[in-house]
Description:
Layout: H1 2-19, E1 33-36, H2 38-41, H3 47-59, H4 62-65, E2 69-72, H5 98-107, E3 111-117, H6 133-143, E4 147-151, H7 160-174, E5 179-182, E6 200-202, E7 214-216, E8 221-223, H8 225-229, E9 244-246, H9 258-270, E10 275-277, H10 286-292, H11 295-301, E11 310-315, E12 318-324, E13 330-336, E14 342-346, E15 353-355, E16 360-362, E17 369-373, E18 378-382, E19 387-391, E20 395-403
Parallel strand pairs: 1-2, 1-10, 2-3, 3-4, 4-5, 5-6, 6-9
Antiparallel strand pairs: 7-8, 11-12, 12-13, 13-20, 14-19, 15-16, 17-18, 17-20
Helix pairs in contact: 6-7, 9-10, 9-11
Amino acid sequence: MVKSFLYTAIIILLNVNNLFAQKFEKLAQTPPMGFNTWNTFQTNINEQMLENMVDNFVSSGMKDAGYQYFVLDDGWMAMQRDNNGSLVADPAKFPGGIKKLVDYVHAKGLKFGIYNCAGTLTCGGYPGTRGYEYQDARLYASWGVDYLKFDWCNTDSLNAHEAYTTMSKAIKIAGRPMVFSLCEWGNHKPWLWAKNVGHLWRTTGDIGAGFGRLVNKGTWNALGVTGILDQQEGLRKYAGPGHWNDLDMLEVGNGMSYNEDKAHFSLWCMLAAPLMAGNDLRKMTDQTKSILTNKDVIAVDQDALGIEGFRYSAVDGLEIWIKPLANNQLAVCFFNRSAKEQTIAYNWKDHPVKDDLSGINIDFNTTAYKIYDLWLKKILGNTKRALKTTIGIHDVVMVKLTKL
């Protein structure tokens, strides 16, 4: 009798602990891929436009390339909660309500993401979630939401760890598995505490459509591609399956040059970053489409090993980035961040690769690799000979090495 009681009590305790465990496990085992409305549209969104965007998500080849999440960012809400304290969709923008859009996304074989903020108001001035975490989580679950981006505006003196932990628990108790994206801008070093709270966390402030360190937005400066890149030093050890460093959304197709878009995309893949397109999917050029849907480059980002790449060297504006891959393969990205073309003759035998995080230790004098160019989609020989090539301004040569 006593044993039976103790057994029942243990089971109850285990269930309670599981109920209050942080975040849903087994999600985002590779970096999440999708589309987010913010970079191009900000709060200028509506139901019909977004349904058209979903259609183009599929017809453009994005879905086939591995993108899953259609994320609705700020500006979807009415300016006030209803009499029950619930969030409601802006009736002018979404006459059919959010559930209608969620169902439309799911019918296309995609997953739906939504936005809110840890503060009293969102960054756009709409109702935030502070004080309504459990109510909002239940609402999102009832709509069938698969992904929550949670921002950090109007938070006053809130403790970031506590605020995001509360929302994480609210999602868990709501009962529907959701990828939880911490958009906290890296202010409180979420890589130190967020592994059990969410599935990805921003490491920097917002990105802008520019290649340099800063992008002038008038009253403030966003970060450009290289500005974000340079803030990733020392963070790779915190990333892995189910918990990723988020370098912010992609600006591919939003005004940079073709070379810059290609370099931007390549480096995000080398760093195992979430890939959230932020361009107008209805107006993609063939060049933009060729970048966003390059399955060989995407495979580097989505590699099952889940190891973030690292900067191997940087000399005179030429950087070499290396990412260990599954099956003893290696991705190498030669990145020209200078304002002039660079011609290289890279002798692999002079450049052994040792990485304590992944445990790789490669001596090209004793082990040879086939070199496959991921953008040109052709074999460039092997590491027994020097790699000779010219790299354009703000461009990359990105290769995958496979043992011979």
